[in-house]
Specification:
The structure is a homodimer of 273-residue chains. The first copy, chain A, is an alpha+beta fold and 273 residues long. Helix content of chain A is 30%, strand content 33%. In chain A, strands 8, 9, 10, 11, 12, 13, 14, 15 and 16 form a nine-stranded mixed beta sheet that branches.
């Protein structure tokens, strides 16, 4: 089901700047029994991302209502929210005032992602390197061609995610997920000040780590540190946590920190119910 | 007027990947008396850009027909063509097969751009620096947030264009145009292998320079070389050529090379009629 500016619909104006320039942001999140999980975190991130582009973020209560509506058809749902700067005349200059467009869509969440949480995944090492753009780093905006090109590098159904490096060879994340490694019992996740998307589940992992008294640091992670890590896992709001069990020739067993963090995330989700 | 997949319409599916990821390319060109100028050059560039993203480019004759249709309402028109990878399920992986979407729209060309060709323009020096992404450099794709953010830096109506530098401080182009400078009688235009968009009019200027026996070289152009240049101008398919008469404290008179090249472009356009 889909709501466009609150109305059931399936199309947007062809003059929308989301299409013309990718001039907007988005969120993908999970809902259970019609209730979006970690809603306020997602809304906060959406509004921070809107602010980064100078787009007026739709009202929280309004979006929450729409998210619940589209999720209600499925006991376990994925909600996607897109907010664009709206329509405008030709030209890059943002119209003043602009009237943002919001698309809220819901679909059943695939149960296959949970099997991967149990089995662990193989990671493709992407050839595409992320560009450094501090003005957009961290923001989940609609300019995602790097992710599209990276994801198009493999079709093997047995490989669930790709590892993206930046132009200096540091690991930044998966094509659709954030990355963590375990080094001598310490969690580390890449610094995202020059590229990458900082997701809500990344923040949750950092907070849960604190509660678990597990040190967690943000750092530059050259590929070799990932290869040498004791454990590697990726997270996002829809998949939860996937342990990485293979990257090129490197193999990992499913490790204790990944398992503990996966359980902590699930317990944290369950506490919302 | 607007045609979407050949049919008069004003909206596109909200599931289109052009909206979701900026997964597509575009062209903006001029038409006179319903006839798109330099059509085959534009089509060639569109198809090269589609190929860079692995998108099947719509048929040439079909697009030409649609371009003529939308342009026909205006003696002097701007045509915009967007080609996206089409709709797909959630997720970055390009659907196979994909069914590209095409949007062809026409509008009256503003005559005010010709006044600026005569008067020359002020150039804003953008604070935003373009990221280096060789996988996308040169391609006129729909990921244009850098241009949007740069164009949002100024609102002064007297400033017609902004100068974009890359992250190493080299001039790359305008927010919507390609850049040329004149140094000791030689034309120079920035190397676009790491960022920027290589436009059709940039190619035409290079070819016309050859006919005019005017040396023209592609080079790295640190900002200081622009400041020290004898002449500076920007070009695109809709504006033609705008001489730059001001950039920060620097002033230029309208120079002889800019004037000659402007005349050559106009003569070349007229020869099409």
């Amino acid at each position: 089901m889909m709501l466009i500016n609150g109305v059931p619909a399936e199309s947007i104006p062809a003059t929308d700047r989301g299409l013309a320039y990718g001039d907007g942001v988005f969120r993908t999140l999970r809902a259970r029994q019609g209730e979006p999980l970690h809603w306020l975190r997602h809304y906060m991130k959406l509004s921070v991302d809107c602010a980064a582009l100078g787009i007026t973020c739709p009202d929280q209560a309004l979006l929450a209502r729409e998210a619940r509506t589209v999720a209600s058809a499925h006991p376990d749902a994925v909600i996607k929210i897109i907010v664009t700067r709206g329509s405008g005349a030709r030209g890059y200059a943002p119209p003043t005032p602009s009237v943002p467009l919001r698309v809220v869509m819901g679909a059943a969440r695939s149960q296959s992602v949970d099997a991967l949480a149990a089995s662990g995944i193989a990671l493709h090492l992407c050839r595409l390197r992320l560009a450094h753009q501090p003005a957009l780093a961290g923001v989940k905006h609609l300019n995602r061609l790097e992710n599209v090109l990276a994801r198009a590098e493999w079709r093997d159904a047995g490989t669930a995610e790709g590892l993206l490096l930046d132009q200096s060879g540091c690991a930044i994340g998966g094509t659709m997920s954030n990355l963590f490694i375990v080094e001598q019992g310490t969690l580390r996740t890449p610094l995202l000040s020059l590229c990458g998307v900082s997701g809500v589940t990344r923040e949750r992992v950092r907070e849960l780590a604190e509660k678990m008294r597990l040190p967690c640091q943000v750092d530059d992670l050259p590929l070799q540190r990932v290869m040498d890590a004791e454990e590697v896992f990726v997270v996002n709001s829809v998949i939860g946590l996937w342990p990485v069990v293979r990257l090129q020739e490197r193999r990992w067993p499913r490790g204790p920190v990944s398992t503990a963090m996966h359980q902590a995330l699930e317990a944290d989700d369950a506490a919302l119910a």
